[in-house]
Design a protein that fits this description.
Strand content: 5-15%
Strand order of the largest sheet: 1-2
Shape: elongated
Number of domains: 1
Radius of gyration: 21 Å
Length: about 160
């Protein structure tokens, strides 16, 4: 954005928000599907081990080792699920700001919200960034989120309708 004509503070400009989010360690994972999957698997394995240790103290699970392991497997999916939700919310916010015709911004605090209408050239540039850069990231996150959700829901159904 041209600094002389744009009243939006630099850190609140959608293009700069996209650049800052791209540089972030956690939010850069979804740039490639493989890096996102590897990061979420690492979190899942650590959480699985932690949940195994925590649930090993239960007297109830000492009688059924299969139930003990499966319950730890499915409950440990909650952490990758929460991480993928957070990633989606962050990238979706930037996507909406890039594709919007208006930019809402604050000059000094929450009480002085302003709206600036983007010029056509800037709107086209940011729309291109949103469609080429951000949309594939959102697609990756949604696919991974769907897989994790299906696994978690299948675990819930397994424990709801089966007695081990």
């Amino acid at each position: 954005m041209n600094e002389s004509r744009c009243p939006v503070p630099k850190e609140q400009q959608p293009t700069n928000e996209f650049i800052e989010l791209s540089k972030s360690i956690i939010f850069s994972w979804p740039k490639t599907k493989k890096s996102l999957i590897l990061a979420l698997i690492k979190f899942w394995v650590v959480t699985f081990i932690l949940f195994i240790v925590i649930s090993s103290g239960s007297i109830h699970f000492k009688t059924s080792i299969i139930k003990y392991v499966l319950l730890s497997f499915f409950t440990s999916l909650s952490i990758p699920l929460l991480i993928s939700i957070r990633l989606y919310l962050g990238w979706n916010h930037v996507f909406k700001r890039l594709t919007s015709e208006r930019v809402e911004y604050e000059e000094s605090g929450w009480y002085d919200g302003q709206v600036w209408i983007k010029p056509l050239v800037l709107r086209e540039k940011e729309s291109l960034i949103a469609s080429i850069e951000v949309k594939p990231i959102l697609k990756n996150i949604i696919q991974i989120f769907s897989i994790i959700s299906v696994l978690a829901l299948s675990g819930i159904l397994l424990f709801q309708y089966n007695n081990f």
